[in-house]
Design brief:
The protein is α+β, with helices and mostly antiparallel strands and 459 residues long. It has 14 helices and 19 strands. The chain is globular and about 65 Å long.
Length: 459
Amino acid sequence: MDDVSRLLGGSWGGRLLSRTDPGFDEAAGVVFAGDGAPPALVARPQDVSEVRAVVRAAAETGVPFAVRGGGHAYARYGTVAEGLVLDLRLLGGVRIDAEARVGVACAGTTAGDYTRAAAEHGLATGFGDTLTVGVPGLALGGGIGYLSRRDGLTLDNVLGAEVVLADGDVVRASDDEDPDLFWALRGGGGNFGVVTRLDLRLTRTRVVTGGLLAFAPDPRTVGALLEAAAHAPEELSLMVNVMKAPPAPFLPADRHGTPIVVALVCHSGTPDDADAALAPFRAAGTLLVDLVRPQPYPDLFGVAPGQAGTRLAQRTGFTGGVAADAAAAVIEAVRTAPTPLAVLNLRPMGGAIARVPRDATAFAHRAQRVMATVGALSPDPGLAGAASDWVARTADGLGLGGAAYANFVADAGASAASDAYPPDTLRRLREVKHRVDPDNLFRSNLNVTPAEEPEPARA
C-alpha cells in the first residue's frame, strides 16, 4: 500500500489508516462478520476532491478496492481483504428544500439522518425498515419499505446523482444528463462509480398510522395478510415476518422463543381512513398484540437491534404468495431453527412499484407480487454452517430462486448478477459498465462485468 499512500500524499491528517494506526479497527469494521482478512488501508475522505484522489490511486495501483457507504451491506461489499477501502462515512450531510420537495443526501448519510431532517418539514422519502442503512447504497439497489406502495421504490424517487467515475471524473446523472448512466444507477448498485450525492423526491408525510400486529402462528394468517395487502389502498404498505417472539415486554411471556406471525404496517393516508384500511389485517388471525397507532413517521422505525459481529445467512427472491401448507412448514422450520434469529420476511409489492415501466430503471421485477427473504443471524461462528443449511432448506421449500432482490443478496456468488437482473437488463447494464468502468475497478458489489469491446463496423 506504499504506492497508494505516496499518490495520496501526506495531507490526510489521520484519515488514511493502516492496521497499526489508532482507529483502524473502527474504520475498517463492517456490520456483519465474515471470515476474510481485514483491508490493509482505509481512506476517509471529507470532500469530493479526496474521493477522486482515492479512486485514481486505486485505479493506478490496481490494489483490491472496495467502497464503504454509511450503513451496511449483507454481502460485506464495504470491505476487501488486504486491499484499500474508501470509507464515505465522513461525507454525511442532508439538505431539505421543502418548497421544491427535494432532499439532498451526501454519500455517508443514513436513512435516519435523512428521515429525521425531512420530518422537521412534514416530508419523507421512503426507504426500507431500518434507519441505520446508508441512503445511496439502499437507493441504488431498490428500497422496499413503509411508503413503497404509495410512492414507489426508493430508486423511483431519485432525481439525480453526482458520481465519481473510475477515471476520477465527476459527472451528473439524471433524466437530462447522461440518462443511460442514470438508468443503470437505479438498480445497478455500486457498479458504476462512487455516488457522492443523491437528489431525492420528498412527499408530504407527517403523521402515519402504523406499528406492529402480532398473531398466533396460524398458517392461514400469513396468506390472509398477503391477500389483504393485494386489495389494500396504496397508502398501506406492510411487511410480514414469521419468526420467534423476542423477549419483548409487549409480547406475552409464554410466547417468548416460540413462533409468531408479525405484521409491520404503515398507513400513510389520512387518519380518518386508517381504521377501515387496517381492518382486514387486524382480522387476519388470532391477534396477540396491537401496537398500531397514529405517530410521526420517523417513530415508526423504533430502535434497530445491534447486529455488529453477527453472521448472516440469507436468500432472497420473489413469490406470488405463500399457501397454507408452505406457511405451516415455515412456522415449523422457525420453531426448530438453530438460532433464535431466524425469519421469513415478506414484502408485498404492487401499487406504485408496479406502475413504473419495467425498463424505466434497472430494477426489472415490477410485476412480482411479493418479495421474500429467508434469513438467519448468529453471533456464534460455530452456528454459521447450521444457519446457512437452515436458510437453504427453508428457501428451497418456498421455491425461492431464479430471481433476486439486489439489496438483500448476502452471497454474491457467480450467479448473483444473473439472478438479480434478467438478460435484457443485464446486457444493458454491461454496456454502461463498459463505457464508465471498462476495467471493472468497482467490483466489490453485486458485480456486473463490462461488456466485451464491440467489433468495429465493417466498411
